[in-house]
Structures are given as structure tokens and as C-alpha cells.
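Known limitations

C-alpha cells in this collection are predictions and should be treated as such. Users comparing against experimental data should check residue numbering before alignment. To illustrate the layout, the record for Putative MetA-pathway of phenol degradation is reproduced below. The input appears on top and the generated C-alpha cells appear beneath it.
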Amino acid sequence: MAQDAGVPIRQSRDDAWWTGPMLANGAETLPQGHMLIEPYIYDVTTPGVDAFGSRAYVLYGLTDRLTVGAIPIIGYNRVSGAPNSSGIGLGDQILQAQYRLRRFHEGSWLPTVSLMLQETVPTGRYDRLGQRPANGMGGGAYATTLGVNMQSYFWMPNGRILRARLNATTTFAGGARVEGVSTYGTSEDFRGHARAGDNFYVGAALEYSLTTRWVLALDLTYSHNGNTWVRGYDVVPGLEPVRVSKRFGRSDAVGYAPAIEYNWSPNIGLLFGVRVIAGGNNVQRSVTPAIALNYVR
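Generated C-alpha cells:
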């Protein structure tokens, strides 16, 4: 870093290019008429299961303050000692809108702040899975997520930029009618309903601009899920229906995701990272390597 009389030169924001960290959403909105496309490819690895997937953020600046878009999701499950998915399938799809309340200005401590709304649309298979539970990639219910996204910039003693993000969301899940083997752990004879627990999530991320093109990133996350309920009957022809009522307890999970970003230009960059869910109350440990390409036009 060049210096003037021993004082590091302050890096300009135009000199720092970003793809964004692996997990935290940005608080900025796209300029009107501009588009962002960011496909992710990942593998959620837990003992005995590899859940390969892809999700792509496809966002459009409807106005300077309002960005809308969709997050299409597909997946394939490979299971040790059991049938794999019969093919690549759709997950539940997500629609998103984000409205910016204010923008960060240098010299002010106030961050960029936006409100986010997401609606999960139940397009993924979730019940009547028969002998292939690995075909289950959805929850069968609509879910609404409300969130606040914040973003700010800090200049380090050496003059380089540290970008910080903070997300907080709450998801309200609906109920699903369930028949047979499902992602809720029901049997072939089950007929009834299920409702996933509501979720609270908070995530923070830091990105350090090593050079114009290279960035180091780290996400830290906490997630809390409420009780999931399954109620109905096991119905076997010729026998009295057996009432089923199950409750899957609350869960809490802590995770982190280090990543490296490389940017060819201010408009296109590549990210490679690994998310680790360390396990927790009713949560299985998982490791998820991922790669993403970020393009803005």
C-alpha cells in the first residue's frame, strides 16, 4: 500500500470489486433496468447423504429502490445404502422483493438498510415418495419470510476496505396435506397434515478487500426453528385407522462459511466457499462446499 508521509492511502470504493459473501444478502438494490444473475452449485454433505443442488438469484431493478426477482432451485440426492433420487428435481422455488430505505454515505455511521420479502412456492416433491424418499426436495407448503438487510463499509488502519453485512429474518410456514412417504418422515400408510416450525435467522458477514480483484469473506450464522407437527392416521385396508401425532422438537444451529472471491471486473466475479453447520440442538452437522458466479449488467 502506497503511503503519504507514513499515512496509508485510503482505498476508494471504486477500487474494491465484490461478488458478495457466500450467505449474507446485500442491502443494496439494483439501479432501475439492471439485472443480477448469480447461480450457485453446492453439495450439502451429511453422514450418508450428499444433497447436490443449484440455486440461482435472478434479480431485476424495477426502480432504483425496489428490486424483484426469483430464486429457482433444483437438486439431486445421493444416499448411502438406499435408492438415490430418480433424477434431478425441482425444489421449492422462491420469489423475492427488496425495498431500500436508505443508502450508506461515506462520513456517516448509518448503513444501507433494506426490507426484504420472500415467498416460498411449494413446487418440490414432498409426499407419495414410495420407495424413493430421496426424491423429496420440498415441504409442500407456502412460507413467507420477512427480513431486514444492512450493509456498511469500514476502512482498516492500512487503508483497505472491510465491508460488513447483517441479515435478520423470520419465516412463517404454512401447513401441507401429506399422503404416504414424505419429507416429514411419514410412512406409506399415512394420511394427514404437517406444518414446519417457524424460523428465526440472523447472519453477519465480513469481506476484506485484499486487492481490487481478490476478497476474503466470512459468514457467521444462527438459526432457530420451532416445533414441526405431523398429525393424521395410518390407514391400512381392513384395519382400524391408527392415529398419528408427532412433534419434532425445536432446533438451534450455528454455522460459519469462509470464502474467497475473485473479480474479473466490477460486474463479474467468482466465489468459492464452504459452509459448516457445526451441529446443535436437534441439528445434524453438515459441510457444504459451493461455487458461485456473480454477473451484473
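For this record: The longest strand covers residues 251-265. The mean pLDDT is 95. Please report discrepancies through the issue tracker.
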